[in-house]
Amino acid sequence: MNLNLDALGIIIIGRNEGKHLEKALDSIPEGIDSILYVDSGSTDGSPDMVRARGISVHELDPEKPFSAARARREGVDILINQSPSLKWFQFLDGDCTFESEWCQTAVDHIALNENIGIVCGFLSEEAPDLSVFNKMNSLRWKADSKGEIDACGGIFLVRRTAYEQAGGFNDMLLTGEEAEFCSRIRKAGHLIVRLDCKMAQHDSDLISFSDWWKRAVWGGYGDAIQYDILESGISNKQRKKIFSSLLWSFIMPGLFLIGVFFSFWKLYGLLGSVLILLTYCALFSKIYAERRRQGDNKNNAALYSIFCVIRKFPHALGFVRYILNSKSLKKSPDPHAS
Fold this sequence. Notes:
There is one protein chain. By secondary structure, this protein is an alpha/beta fold. The protein folds into 2 domains: 3-207, Spore Coat Polysaccharide Biosynthesis Protein SpsA, Chain A (Alpha-Beta Complex), CATH 3.90.550.10; 214-325, no CATH class. The chain has 11 helices and 9 strands. The protein starts with 7 loop residues before the first strand and ends in a 13-residue tail after the last helix.
């Protein structure tokens, strides 16, 4: 075993992942001793199954809101107490499995580059043909860039010193915690790098439109929480994403309806509504052209573009839902609100 892996701690988080979790555990390289599973209130026996494999389990206190950020933060604290000599932490979600060479490749790379705080690779979808929604995730991950990046998802390897300098995960965030954490990693002077290799397989398990819609609504809700808590700390990229969702989901449809209303008296009202519809076509065309440049075939580019446009509606709905559930965007939210 490579001595570098002796200093690696693996933290797996999950809730009712069942067979997914078993596969995640099976994918961990042999010889790594510092492994912790953090459970967020599972009722399917996941903690007992993990313990039966001889792996440590930490069950989150149900009196506090469950979140990925909280699970990862508490997991790191526990592993540091158990193994103070750890130098790196690798995070894995319970519905994912490691690619066979990932952990060794990641540790070797970060060990040789002291300026790197986080290293990640490429995700792939386990069952992209199971549904059109799984296919969408597969296309989205395919578009990820390699080399130095601004942020990554929740599966990555982080240098312990960089993690501590950045202050760890913000467990007030119920979603979107990765981008916020990555922002603090970069502010602390560390690079985030995506290697040109496969890192893990993910099972999105998005079977129905309802599954996909709910996840998109939750994404918008999480962005609103970030906007509330972080205020000026939110990135310009995220501000643009929020504004774009609100523009295309509320402002543009509102202008369309105004045009329809005035069309009963004036022709320009109808023309205005037609122009609004054409802007949606232009948005689709812009995304489609970009995906074609990235190498997608016509069908995949069209599929991705359609769902990118549609997703703005549930994302904006989630953002507005948080506003309506909160007394003020200047106060920290009640994490129990939904």
